[in-house]
Each structure stands twice: as C-alpha cells, then as structure tokens.
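Lab notebook, bench 4. We co-purified these components, and the gel suggests they stay together. Before we commit to crystallization screens, I want a quick structural picture of the whole thing.
Request: model the full complex, all chains together.
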Amino acid sequence: METVKTNRRNFLKLATATTGGLILGFNWEANATTFNVLDEATFAADNNFNSYLSISSDNVITIFSPNPELGQNIKTSFPMIVAEELEADWLRVKVVQAALDTKKFERQLTGGSGAIPHSWERLRKAGATAKQMLLEAGAKRWNVSASSLVAENGMIVDKSVNRSLSYGELANEAALIPVPTDVKLKDKKDFKIIGQPIRNVDSMEMITGKPLYGLDFYREGMVFAMIQRPKSFGMKIKSVDAAAAKAATGIIDVVTFKNNVAVVGKSTWQVNKARKLLKIEYEIDSKIESTTDHDKLFKELLESKEATVRRKDGDVDTAFANAAKVISREYQCPFLPHNPMEPMNFFAHVRQDGVELVGPTQTPDLARNEVARLLGIAPDKITLEMTRLGGGFGRRLKADYVLEAAELSSLIKAPVKLIWTREDDMGGGSYRPAVRYRFQAALDKENNLIGYKLRGVGINSGNPTREDNFPSGAVDNLLIESVEYKSSITTGAWRAPITNFLAFAEQSFIDEVANEVKQDPIQFRLALLEKVKKSPVGVIKYDIDRMKTVIELAREKSNWGKNKNVIQGFSVYFSHRSYVAQVAEVVMKDGKPVIKKIYAAADCGIVVNLSGAYQQIRGGIVDGMGHAFYGSLTFKDGAAEQVNFNNYKLIRYKEVPEIDVHFVNNGIDPTGLGEPALPPTGGAIANALYKATGKRLYNQPFIKQEALTGVSLDSKM
Amino acid sequence: MATYQLQINGKSVSAEADADTPLLWVLRDNLRLVGTKYGCGIAQCGACTVHLNGTAVRSCSLPISAVGNKKVTTIEGLSEKGDHPVQQAWSEVDVAQCGYCQAGQIMTAAALLNKKSKPTDQDIEMAMNGNICRCGTYHRIHEAVVLASTKISK
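Here is the predicted assembly.
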C-alpha cells in the first residue's frame, strides 16, 4: 500500500517534495474554523491543525479526507466541497486518506450519516480561505487590487489585460500572505463541482484490483490468524485440545485467550484448515437462547407492567376508553447480520515501543482507545492506518476484531493479520436487534385519531422507538414506551439503526389506519402534518415542511393513483436529519404480485455528488428491500443457524426493481444520505402488496409470510 | 506442500502450496494478487471470480492442484492499463460504492462479453445474478455491462 500511509512525516514528504508551496492547516473546533499557513518547521512541530490542504508549486492540490470510506463516497465528496470554494481544477486534485489523528481531526468516524453535515461549512471555508490568499498573491505579483482578479479553474486571472497564473505558480507567494479571518463563501447558485456527478476517486484502483482494503494488507514477516469463538452465545471454554491443529502443516502456534482459541500460521488457508482440527469443549456461562424462546418472550414483554415511558402527551387512557374504535397491530423483525462483503480483519503489531494497527474500521479513535486500555499503554503509542472498507453497515463501529488482533499480537510477539471467515462474521455477533412493536390507534366517531400508543420491545435493543418522530406532535393523547431484554446475543448499530425496521412497522400501521378511516394514505399523512403545523403537541424533532415536500414530490413523480395498470404503496420517513418518501409499484402477473418500480423523493439538502447520491438512494432501497424480504438470522441453543450465503439470502441482480430517484432542490446545507433512503422501503412495498393481495405483512422477512407464498422477487418477469 | 507451475496473466509463475489450497488464496497469499477477493469461500457470492481459459470460475472453490496449465486471468491481468472495455465502462458508469465485490463483477461481465459480445438482458441476468453486491449497485452493473457491450461491438 503506497498512498494510504500518511502519518505526518509522509505527508511532509508529499506536500513539500516540490519545494514548498502553500500548506494550509485548519482546525475543526466545534464553533469556529481557524487557519494557518504552515512552513515545514511549524508543520512538524504543530499539533493544532486538524486538516490540511496543500498546493504544491508544480500545481498539485492535495486534500486530506479524514473519515473512513466504506462506500458512502466521502473520500470523493469531502474534497469536492473544498475544491468548489477553491475554484480548483478538479482534475488536478489529489485525494489522500488521512491516518487516525484525533489531535488533527475531529469526528473521524463513519456512522449516523453525519460526516457531510458536520464538515460542510468547515470544508467550504478551507477552500475559500486558500482561494482568497491566492487572489492576494496574484494581486501582489501584478500590483493590482485583489478585487480586480478572479479565481477560476485553478487559475488566478486578470481579465482586464488577459493574463493568468496557475495556483501552483502562486503557491509559494500565497504562503506568505496573512491568513484572512473573514472570507466570503460562494453563492450556492454558482456551484460548479458540488451537485455534479463526480467519479469515485478510487475508481482506477478498484477496477484494476489494486490493494485498497484491510484484507489486502500484507507485511513481510507477518503471520496469519483465525480465532475459534464459541459457536453459541452464552458458552465459555472448558477445555482445549489443540494437538492436531498444532501439528498441521504451516501452523506456528495455537493460543488461547479469553474465550478465543487462535490458530496462527503461515497462510490463510493453512490456518483455516487447522482451525477445524481444534477440539474444544464448552460449558454454559450465561443464558442459552433460541429464536423460539424469543417469540414467547416478546409476547410477555408486550404485557409487562415495567416499561420505560419514552413520551407521554395528554391522557391516553381516557382517549382509548372513549374511542369508538381501537386498532391494534403488532410487527416483528429478526436479528440481522451486517454482512459487509469484506469480512472483519485487522493487522496488529504490538512492539516494545508502540503498536501499529492497520485495517478497516468505522471508528478508528474508539479502536485505538480500546486497544490502549487493553494493553495498558497510552493511546499516543498507537498508530492506526485506515484502509478502504469493503462495506460497514455499522458492523465496523465495534472494535472487537481490532482488540482480538492486538491482544493476539501482544501474546505471540509478532505482526499478525487476523481474518474472520464469512461464517465467523455471520455467527460472531453484533447483530441488528430483534424487535417487536405493538401500535394502537384510538378513533372517535368521526374517525379522528384521538389516541396513539406504541410499545417497542427488543433484545439488547436499547430504545427501539423514536419518540419525537412523526406522528408524535399530531396526536393529542400519545404514549410511547419500551421494554428491553438483556440477552447474551450481542447486538449493535445496523445501517439506519432502529428505524431500519421501525419505519416499516409505523408506516404499515399508518396505512392501515388510513384504510380504516377510508382516506387516501397520502392525504391522511398530509392531514396529520397539517395538524402538527397548526397545533403541535409537545416536542417535535422533524421539519413539517420538509416532510410535506417529499410526500408531495413522490406523489407527483409516481403519478399516484392515476395509473390503473399498477398498484401503489406509499411510505415516508425522517431519519438522520433527512427526509425520504417512496412509492412502490406492483403489477399482478399470473395472479402473483411483482414489484416493478420504486419512486423515491429525497430531501437531504444540497446534493454534493450527484453520482454518489443516486447510489446512496438506490443502494439504500435495495438494502431495505432485500433485508425486508429475505433477512433472517435465527438461533438454536445460542448458535446462529445461518452462517453463510448458502442458507442466508442477500438480494441479487435480477430481484431489484427499477428505481426512480428525485431530489428536492431547496438549497439547505446538506443533511446526510448514507442511511435515510433505507427505512421507508419496507413500508412502501408492504403497503403496495397489501393493496395487491389484500393481505398485510406484519413480520420480516416477508418471504416467510403467508401473503407471499409462491411469490418470486424476480422484477424482470 | 508441492510446487505448482501456473499460467497467470500471461506469465508462468510457481507457487508452493498444499494441494487443496484454493486458487484464491494462492493468488492472494503467495502471489499477492489481491484484486481477487474473499467473500464467502463457498462459491456463493462471486467476489473471487477469475477466468480459467476464458471462463468465469470461483477461485475460492478451485483447488490449486486442479488448475494445471490452464490460463488464469485475474482482474490485474484483464488489461495492461486498466482499459478493458468492461473496466472502462465500470469507471464511466461509476459503478462502485464500497468496491469490494467489483473485481468479481467485472470478471464475470468480461467472461460473458467474451462469449457473447451482444448479450440479451436475459443473458446479462443469468451471468450477473451469481455475484452479490451488498451495497446494491445492481442498476449500474446492468448499465455498465450494456455500455461495455457497445464498446466491444464497435
């Protein structure tokens, strides 16, 4: 890996190899962005600048992208924002993945669709500041006023006499200009790079198979390792007989630590084979659970007297007692593994004088701190180099596999690459929690929604509700509560945590209520929003107008209700600051429903990279649809029953419908797009399938539901 | 352990490995051709797809002892400069999200177009359905295969 390793010394080499130029360091403090021009000496001594932009005298613009790249396209989008304000020639911009450095970078993680919203203004200011300094350098050179010059396409241009200089030619002089404290940002209507479809900066490396990912990292002298973990959650090691494994070809050692038996050897395959020769006895350590137990458990939790109240408005008891009609429905979802295509892996080298970590992680800072705590050393003794991630979906927010690699390296005193197989990945935990919801609506004689109750119960689910989300604010009497069961099965954030299923349940329920009161489902939602606008009840954490706009856009683009040849279902959801409405379109073929098309209307504020934005919407929908239909991880006696793709199905090529994407163009600063397209999909599809078949889907995976018996997902039929 | 003489990307190379070692791990661990990816190890996801005498095969399930002197092509050898029509199309359409599965997708598409330069939608579906993309880039995969086909047919 040549270009990825970028500790300070490497960066210096990179930035100053061509005799200086402009290096602009900037801080991303919470409330302000400050800038400084750095020369080599201050740069080397300084710890207070958390990102860098450099322009070398040979006209190469280098922009550091500090966040882990897992397919959300941040490595392309961040530099686009800088280049826009800088008026750089995009073709001359070189993007470098920064290593972990919490002194330099704030929020160096990937999760919560938050990177662009967090960094938007700071990145713009960085570009604008450098541009202003280049303008002033040009003004000085030609002895004219900076305001008479323009910056365009990587050049400072004096239009009055038709002369120009490249940024590179002015870089050294610009470095001598005092950093302006107040710079003007571009008018958004003048954006030339932002909003365009810009190709992924790693495109060439990806299509030619260059080493980019953690699993591609090799170091001379490193050993390979796999760990046998208990197959059942709730078990612990009783005894280990490693004789046969140790005697196998290529095996260097077998090491037992915590609940792990690590096989260390000279190649991945030898380690994989030898691991199967281990004879390990386990004994019960805590609860041993099966999916059938959980099904019973959910029913108990739904009746439990001890629930945590998340939100209470008005008087639900009276509203339900006085109701002319009560609708009560339940929805359940299973555990899901994340299944990024690149399984967990990490390189660790624990030496006397420090620790080197290399690999794919969404939270490099957390990983380093946890390794520091584990080894009892200071975090600054640890370097962490981020590779590109072969997907994340939340799985790599946890550092368990980094800790395993570090602990193993410290035990065997060797550089080690720890590899999880697919089976390890799917069987090894940190799943989307299994959850069941009960929704209840109270209607008066005039069919007004006078009461609303939601109880969410889940296994290691934390709070499985989003209590201040829609339709909170629209109902006078409302109660939202939750019950959590602590299990030995580990769970974690899974793309669009909680809302990845909650949205389906809620949007299905609202559809059912609309149906009950004989209103058009879109009109019913709009009426609720209108009520929030006129007389909001309690705190609301969503923007009424933004939600209304995506609903109306989806209605318009899908020709809602106007095409008699298709059956449509609607859903809308607000998550992670952005709004997405979807219409799923079903046609009947030989008496069976076929999902033909999904329309999406999204408001994520300003679209930074149109190409990447389409990918996030389409990919989010495909992800939401695939998991709603197929995703199911079941347990028997504490062990996952599906551990590879032979009996755990991911959605494939021929199953994806056409997806028609529309963005709201409202000029709002970007609000994030890595997750928000996923939550609405299950609901839109379920609501369309209800209209098509007359049967409601209450549980995921859909494919196991009676309503879909014999239905094929082949959208190309 | 035995020594195998292999024909990879137009070169004759030797590798020492156990007879049952899948070609995938010889490519990666022995030869450091890491473009070919591990995804499932049981020929279900297609991330490890390479060409064996021009046909797409799953290298995770092909023991090295069965390769013989058949010609192996990996993503690194698909073209000298990364300009095979399928690679060009993949870049122009900007297919990748995380990108991990894409070498396998490209190799599958290249093998298809090698056999049939103007595939029908059904042909494309048959070929590409074996490759999983967890990011869900299937729409662009389709677009890129169609574009590559027009490039080849020109």
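Chain B touches chain A through 61 residues (CB under 8 Å). Worth comparing against the SEC data before the next meeting. The first helix of chain B runs from residue 23 to 30.
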